[in-house]
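User: My notes are a mess, but here's the protein and zinc ion's SMILES. Can you give me a structure?
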Amino acid sequence: MIGDLSMLQDEAALGALVGKLRAVWDPVDAEQEYVTLADLDGLWSGCFLLGHAPSLTRRLTSVNTRCTVPRMTDQERLHVAHQPSDHLEVTDQGWLIGPGTEACPSARSSKLWVNETNILGIVWHYTDTRSATAMGLARRIMQMPGPGQRAASWHICIDRSGAIVQSISALLGSWHAGGASAARFVVDRFVEDARIDLASPPVKRRIWRAVSPHTGLPGANDLFLGIELENVGEVRRHGAEWLGWPFAHGTANGEPVVVPVDEIAKHTGRFYHQFTAAQVDAAQRVTQALVGKYHLVRPNCTLSHQAIDPERRTDPGPDWMDRCLPIILDQVFGGGASK
Ligand SMILES: [Zn+2]
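Assistant: No problem, the inputs look usable. Here's the predicted complex:
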């Protein structure tokens, strides 16, 4: 055991605890930070004091015997410990920490075309899967793809209960929108960073515009973070049931997911699996944390996979892009702001 609850009662004791935690949390190898289950007891009690017990415990148990734990400075730990209970932070290594987050590190990453001071924004996706599949999907992309497997990955997946699983650091690229028909990007214009920071000069942020796939310019995988949302997608009525793709039973494309009627939303004459309030809340907390860390600007957080690759993709669809995302971005950037 590293400590117990009584240690929180004075700052000096907390400082000592943080020192001990750091010894476990910050191994020699800065690139891959592993903590074994042997450390669980001490880590758990220490993290409980800092408000991270539930997410860390899940992290440790969800990745079998080894797991990556994001490294924080002492100051970051104390800062997080004094935030509201649902507050998320992004570590300097690009990992989300806070209630409801889990890390399930994937090998399927690549270098971002931009550096960490210029992480650009978010592309939104849906998983095209039933409920409670996010962790299974994350496990599937832990290793490099085998023969015949799709080389897909993403940074973060948010399940229907609002749980957040991160597979790739925000400082690396993932393979979420790299199809041959996917758009490439050019700088459209610059805007001044809206952050209030009197100590540093205003920073110009790039706003990107999609251009033809055949230009050889950087693509979404080089520039943007990919966030997946657990969702079945479009549904169609089949007798008394509402079915996801392929919208019928017994086809060669596998069995469709049956969606309960109270989870269906109608948009411009078509029907979709509705995103949950918990997903909206979690996505807002994730966006807030990313915006806080990387100073993303609103226009760079509004991209859908469909907008980038309309020939091949329809995700995440109108229920997210037209109903949920505007609410989230109004909360994060201030109501109605379009800059
Ligand atoms: Zn997608």
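The pocket of zinc ion is lined by residues 125, 305, 313, 315 (CB under 6 Å).
User: Great, I'll file this with my notes.
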